[in-house]
Amino acid sequence: MIAVMLIAALVLTVMGAPVAVALAGGSLIFIMVTGQVPDLVVLHRMIGGVDSFPLLAVPFFILAGNLMNSSGITSRIFEFAKAVVGWLPGGLGHVNVGASVVFAGMSGAAVADAGGLGSIEIKAMKDAGYDTEFSVGITAASSTIGPIIPPSLPMVIYGVLASASIGKLFAAGFVPGLLMAGALMVMIAVIARRRSYPVDSAFRVGNLVRRTREAFLSLMTPVIVAGGIISGALTPTEAAIAAAAYALFLGLVVYRSLNLRRLAAVSMRSIETTAVVLFVVAAASIFAWILTSNNVATDLASRLLGITDSKVLLTLIILVLLLVVGCFMETIAAMIILVPVLLPVVTQFGFDPTHFGVIVVLTLMIGLLTPPVGVVLYVLSSISGLSFERCVSATAPFLVPLVAVLLLVAYVPEISLWLPNLIFR
Predict the structure, then answer these.
(1) What distances in angstroms separate CA 60 from CA 115, 240, 332, one per listed residue?
(2) Does the pTM exceed 0.85?
(3) What residues contact 400, with CB distance under 8 A and at least 6 apart?
(4) Residues 50/282, Cβ–Cβ less than 8 Å
(5) Residue 38 carries which DSSP code?
(6) Domain ranges across the chain
(7) For 243-284, how does the pLDDT look when each residue is reduced to its tens digit (9 = 90+)?
(8) Which pLDDT tens digit goes with each residue over 369-381?
(9) Which string of b and e fits 87-120 if b means at least 16 CB within 10 Å?
(10) Helices then strands (H, E): number in the chain?
């Protein structure tokens, strides 16, 4: 009957039903056929799935990201990044990555990065003579840094599911996020040298000082968010509220780029996005509850233990599983279904829950760049005018450095755990 539930969810997805509807529908079919529990349990478990205080951070981080995109903060970040790394070969490619690193400390969502910075970055790169495919590829790849460097919406979800410290998870994402940026910049340098891409501009201290001054208040956002959480001064939920309030203050008072009409539009967009995310969380919660209550996690653990007792091989199996699932399922839904099943298995092999959280989020972020459910690719296809298929081929080369970093992070736990162990002694 578990197989029937999985097949029902898959069929509904193929028929075009939203992921949340497919998951809730498959769960309801299972409960109606088996009669294990009353039908109303579906509603109770869905409500329970979103009845969590840390999840309050989700709508506020979404609001903060939308406010930043609408108040001119993203353009200031882009100009600041140009002043810092625009002088390197393939300058605007490096600027693309640098801006994503800074914006990652504000929004915590890959789609927000791609949608906000993407329109600015792709236009600037095309105007400077870069191939559209290259511009789209590096924009897509760099957007995956957003949920790795704190704050991070997927990290919040994982922390709730695994009962793990969200502060430790945020700290654990710093070094892997910077490694992703470094690997992408190496790839850009190689491609730029091969294709003779231009340097954006010569390095000038005066320009750097001016752009830093212009972007200083915007750059304080990640300091407030990440610093507040890691220092213990703010909970993740409080940090999300602070980020939204600060972005609102910048847009209305400092930059005066927001008016009531735009604020209303931003608010409605944030409400719609939040509703979609929490509906997916609720639907995936009942799906995951059925899997765990029917001992799927225990059965999977025993089967994997029967296959291998090697942590190295188990890690590879889990990475492949997550990559495959990431190709077909939205990130948050995949996490809610897989984490309760996989966490008991990996803990038996000695995985640290914080390290495993970084692995899960990083692997599923790569899934955002793969068809058929490559959400970031659909966003950038709309922005750039390229077909979805051309966006896929343009992004493919940049999967190489991302997968290389994934393997490094997965097999060297100290990369993720060094900073949280240093801070949270």
Answers:
(1) 18, 5, 17
(2) no
(3) 187
(4) yes
(5) -
(6) 1-39, 53-423
(7) 889 888 988 888 888 888 888 988 898 888 788 878 877 887
(8) 887 667 777 778 8
(9) bbbbbbbbbbbbbbbbbbbbbbbbbbbbbbbbbb
(10) 21, 0
